[in-house]
Amino acid sequence: MFKKLSISLLGLTLSATVFADGGTREYDVTITNITKAQIFAPVALATHKSHFSLFTPGEAALPELATLAESGNPGPLLEYLDGMHGYVMDTNHSGGMLHPGDSVTVSISGSSHFDRLSFASMLVSSNDAFAGLNSMELPKSTSSAMVPAYDAGSELNDEDCANIPGPPCGDMDDSGEAGEGYVYIGNGISGTVDVDSLAYDWNNPVARVVVRRVR
Predict the structure, then answer these.
(1) Pairing of strands 88-93, 184-185
(2) Is the pLDDT of residue 20 over 80?
(3) Among 61, 27, 26, 38, which residue's Cα sits nearest to residue 147?
(4) For the whole model, what pTM was predicted?
């Protein structure tokens, strides 16, 4: 629920939207790809409790997150999150690829108990890098954050087109050799095999997110 609050100050009337604290809260989440050339795969989003984490740097990625990071497919991760009753309130996805410089807005629900937002999206010109927002507190009104790329640590960063789904490759097989075994901050493209570092490398952060409460 929300109501309009009007205040008179020095002859001026100021209006603001005041939201009630209880019940379901609705948010618009706008994600902007700020890389030069990395396309984002469909973004998987979830609202959840504060003691739930989509991933933990230094620890192994969920298998479903590893699938997203290697292939760009958010389906298994969303299915896993939808099954986390008591921890996850709502999920959604962006529906399509997000190109450099473009933005997408996705609606999602939260509450006073499910007051964190996380999301993940593969950088498709990589082996297993993903843009990852990890447990951002949902705002009373509007807030923003810069989002880094992580490496899922599930696939070797061989930069071989046989294991990379996006440009300049296009293979959808995520059967590369096992990686480091833990999530860490992504270190970009080295340009040693098939992927040109001048074209597809990045520096963190890779995305900007703005979260606005709408109800």
Answers:
(1) unpaired
(2) no
(3) 38
(4) 0.86
Structure tokens at 38: 């990395």
Mean model confidence pLDDT for the chain: 89
Q: Given this model, what pLDDT does residue 192 score?
A: 86
Angle subtended at Cα 41 by Cα 35 and Cα 44, rounded to the nearest 5 degrees: 110
Which tokens is 80 given? 């896993």
One-letter amino acid at 153 equals: G
CB 185, CB 175: distance < 8 Å: no
Q: What is the CB-side half-sphere exposure of residue 169 using CA atoms within 13 A? A: 26
Contact 101, 76 (CB under 8 A): no
Domains and CATH numbers, the chain: 23-213 (2.60.40.2130)
Instruction: Give the full edge-to-edge strand order of the sheet including 25-33.
Output: 103-110, 25-33, 207-213, 142-147
Polymer length in residues for the chain: 215
Tell me the C-alpha distance between 131 and 120, whole Å: 5
Q: What SS3 class is residue 185?
A: strand
Q: Name the pLDDT band for 119 (thresholds 50, 70, 90).
A: very high
3-state secondary structure of 120: strand
